[in-house]
Amino acid sequence: MSSAPPRPAGPVFLAALLALAAACEREPKTVVAAPASPPPATAPAHGANAMPGQAATAGRGAGPERAAPAPGLAPGAPASGPPSTAALVAQVDAMRAELDRREKPLEILVALGNLYFENGRYPDAIEWYRQAIEMAEPAWKAYLALPVRVRAAARPRCPTAAIRAGAARPGYAELSAAAVARARDRDVGGAAGCWRQALVPAIAARVQRGNAYLLAGDPARAVAEQEAVLERFPDDPEALWFLGLAVAESAQGDPAKLARAGALWDRLEKLQPNGPHAQDLKAARAELTRRMSEAGRAR
């Protein structure tokens, strides 16, 4: 017997979801790097030789809140956030059956993933991110179907005139519709810009899903997630940074993997010499050099 399709969110329910999204729109502050053999989640430990890193970044364009670099990382241990985050998770858990029955905007799915990520519930975060990533797949296919030269020249933002009136803060649905309209009018450059902007939260969700896999003790899938982002956007700075961390943390003394992490960070440094990861890169490179020296002595 086929199940009934999800019901669209009604005005009251959608308002509750939007309030929830606004409440958990903060950047997750969980440290992302973890040793190759993470300790049990019930007993996290600060590794003295863990790769220096920073708080995970889920949102883009709004100025992420950054945690101070630390000499060691706490794998799987969420930083203590505002007391309201635990209450928000409890609210979402209580609403889960209703949430599953309702259609949700992509931004809500990402916000829910961020909330669970921040609270250290990585399998739940992965599930919310999965739904967001799958929702964005049609836009990805349409964007990647455009000629490479068009995508390369596309502006990162959708022309204001393409967005319907009244959408002060257009989301995935509005931007995707604008892209389709632009493509229909043979404005492929405008369509590319609209799809690029529409896909920003989906890219962030995939990067963050990779971080969740890493913290859940699955470095292979963490690497695969970041590689998937770079396959579509080769110069995505967040994916370059976090892929370097995932590769370094899972290297287990392999000189080739350590060298690859360094090469990824070289690319990032060329793209953003004074970018948000500049200070963390210095600390990470120092630790990477130490590990490479150790690997050389062990051979």
Stated plainly, the CATH topology of the largest domain is called Serine Threonine Protein Phosphatase 5, Tetratricopeptide repeat
Mean pLDDT: 76
Oligomer class: single chain
Number of helices: 13
Structural class: mainly alpha
**CA-based shape:** globular
For the record, the count of structural domains works out to 2
- Any idea of the CATH class of the largest domain? Mainly Alpha
Looking at the overall shape, the CATH architecture of the largest domain is Alpha Horseshoe
Q: Helix and strand string, N-terminal first?
A: HHHHHHHHHHHHH
Largest sheet composition: none
Low-confidence stretches: 1-14, 24-48, 54-83
The value of Rg in angstroms is: 20 Å
- CATH homology-level superfamily of the largest domain: Tetratricopeptide repeat domain
What percent strand? under 5%
DSSP strand tally? 0
Question: Percent of residues in helical segments?
Answer: 55-70%
Please give the alpha-carbon distance between the first and last residues. Answer: 61 Å
